[in-house]
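Hi all, a correction to my earlier message: I attached the wrong file for Chloride channel protein. Here's the right sequence:
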Amino acid sequence: FLFIYLFLHSATPTEELNGVGNLMDFLDEPFPDVGTYEDFHTIDWLREKSRDTDRHRKITSKSKESIWEFIKSLLDAWSGWLVMLLIGLLSGAETRPLMTSLTRDTPTHDIRDTHSLHQRHTHSSHQKHTLMTTEIRVYLLNYFLYVLWALFFSFLAVSLVRVFAPYACGSGIPEIKTILSGFIIRGYLGKWTLLIKTVTLVLAVSSGLSLGKEGPLVHVACCCGNLFCSLFSKYSKNEGKRREVLSAAAAAGVSVAFGAPIGGVLFSLEEVSYYFPLKTLWRSFFAALVAAFTLRSINPFGNNRLVLFYVEYHTPWYMAELVPFILLGVFGGLWGTLFIRCNIAWCRRRKTTRLGKYPVPEVIAVTGITAVLAFPNPYTRRSTSELISELFNDCGALESSQLCDYINNPNMSRSVDDIPDRPAGPGVYSALWQLTLALVFKIVITIFTFGMKIPSGLFIPSMAVGAIAGRIVGIAVEQMAYHHHDWIIFKNWCRPGADCVTPGLYAMVGAAACLGGVTRMTVSLVVIMFELTGGLEYIVPLMAAAVTSKWVADAFGKEGIYEAHIQLNGYPYLDQDEFTHRTLATDVMRPRRNEPPLAVLTQDSTTVEDVETLIKDTDYNGFPVVVSRESERLIGFVQRRDLILNIKNARQKQDGVVSNSVVYFTEDAPQIPASNPQPLKLRRILNLSPFTVTDHTPMETVVDIFRKLGLRQCLVTRSGRLLGIITKKDVLRHMAQMMNQDPESIMFN
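and the right structure:
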């Protein structure tokens, strides 16, 4: 009900897309206050931290005045935990229709029932020719309906995204990482994005495309966090505090996506968050706990468990198996490198050619190709989650899957849970060929699917590629151990008639390796995998595969898929890689040679008209204030938006302020004749302690300062005299230039 209330009292979709909303639209419109930021700009972390400290000091001092003020201070202190509770509840609750829809194989569910009906009918006729003819007709009908449903679902998804919420496309994690680093993208976490992404995610996954739901669920959870931030001025008016909530919301998103609350917290810490203090860690854990508890009480999978891929193996792993586990890690690293390079090349082609102008035909074409090629193979026809679940499972006595078609020994008298290794039957070999074709199909089609204008995650497709490869390797090792148990590598741990090798474990290790190769996750990946499957005793194989895949992938490039998409989109994101080039601040600062001098304001000789002209003629975020243009002694720094708001308010409310009024940034304005216009005092908006470096400061230090302090800009001085300015955009462009990349690819401020 809270969500519906907030949603109905907000702007229409057209207004949100155009950036125009009514007064009640407090989710997307900036507050008309000093300190808010323009769209596609970077926040000032130091300033936000200072503002929150001042707010907290004011509340603490007031709490001693009365009981009511003391109660208000307690409410303020507990507001963070309340927001976490609401995020966890909403993230878990809205997952119920999502999960129940995604766990059904929508395009083929009814088709299989129809096929069984026709089979029963045709068998009763006892006519061989009629039987074959009817089976062909049923197969073609199933084929046609499968493709038709897939095209319908994908068309509906891309149409809703294109019309109502363009930001609802893709994974969302690259943009979430950028937002958490301090970048403003108005509307990306808005209510229309939340609503449309939740609906279209079900449609996109149900269409049978090679995509997942986990990344989009992180985006959805962050939208929930942004929604509840609007209820508390502590978060809605401070972009730094808002990002603490969004970091915790990302943890809740992974918690409901995988049923892995601890993995969700580690994922937010390792992969998404830019600023993650200890307080945020505690609150992330609480939000993930509430989300997991809500998910467990709903029981969306119908198995009374928190996870979909729960496995229970009855055989321990052996040291000799580390060799194939490490080889799977190598495969995962190579697959990750191949996928990132091919996907980025395709997405760059989409951005730079006419292909990007036709998102609907692209989605329809990829869906049509996917459906046509996927239906003949039973392993690509079913939903990816069901495929992974089957690949992870161990073969029991009652399993009917082709992967469990082993030749049984009629004299075997063992318990159901302790079935020895057996020779593979014809069904297993048939399944191996089908899995090999499915592996090639998934590798190729995922490259073209990820990045289209529909909600699309990458976790499940990457895990599917690894699970297929791992199951193939597992069956191969199992059959080698059975037929060659006298080899020295098997002799010590695999006796004849023993249950030595578990192919499902290889599938689980392969899934972790491929996911790690694409995302470069390590710690959070291993924790997510053992929470996802319940395989706690198999941590060492998972760790070995995850570390190997990262090493192999890093040998070809340090950036994961999300960092690659951030760079492709030109977002101002400073990664954690070390800057090793020997350049100085003077090499990066502006103005450079043959450029106009730096735009500055003087402390007591600039008129209102001069300030308005400077604001009109430039698009800078702020201006240094100096004693005079001759001395250029630095006094402070003033934000562009603060100037605009204060001049506008002064003209409306302060008598005597005209274009010729002198703007004073000094503490006391001098006495002026009565005939002169009234001066405008703006000392209170002047930052008297802007961050400065000398012109000979190494850029390695400057980059570290920008990264750890979250600066927007840094002034360059020599003996107190202003020389220039370095912005975050300048740092990113310089880093791109040093890595032989196009510096103009950094498009935003």
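Sorry for the mix-up. The radius of gyration is 30 Å.
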